[in-house]
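Human: If only I could read backbone structure tokens as easily as an amino acid sequence. Take your time, and here it is.
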Amino acid sequence: MKRTMGFVGLIVCVSVIIGGIAAAQVNKTREELVMEAINAYELETPRGDMSVPRIDGELLRRLVEENDVRRAVEIGTYRGYSGLWLGLGLLQTGGHLTTFEIMPEYAADAEARFESAGLADIITVVVGDAHVEVAVLQASIDLLFLDADPYGYTDYLEQLLPKLSVGGLIVTHNVRSPRPDPAYIEAITTNPDLETEFVHMDRAGVAITRKLR
């Protein structure tokens, strides 16, 4: 004898399905939430508007995890893509990111993205001119990521190198295109207290500088 599902049975079935979907959302790991935010950003953003390509984002995450970074600073939040990668690494190390953005609309966009990715508790967005605002930093820095006006890098180096911990890293984006102030490149390659290597030079280029002492 053929049976059909009654209205009540249908409601119960739909409720179970919806409940299962909701439970799956709740049970997502923090890493999964961040990766969802990263993938969503890539889908909604034209390639030409990506300030940092995925390969450089993956590099940032790896550097954070491999160096057990606890205190990271980013100059140039933009819309939060690189911050998501840094945050992904900091989830593993238990660290915190302070990121500086001069444009209020970009900062607001990034903060909303960090919130939806579950990273609001480990990322602080500071709005304003980073050349001035970095003075608020009191603790030592384990990793500094520079991705702003390339001709401002020298000033950031002078202000923040004393706060960089021994063994800490300065990761500089856009060392090939657009090229930063030549004085900055000279500073990170001739200072005997620093060791610098260049990677991804077939793209925008990244300099990884370690403070030796």
Remarks:
- Confidence is low (pLDDT under 50) at residues 10-25.
- DSSP finds eight helices and seven strands in the chain.
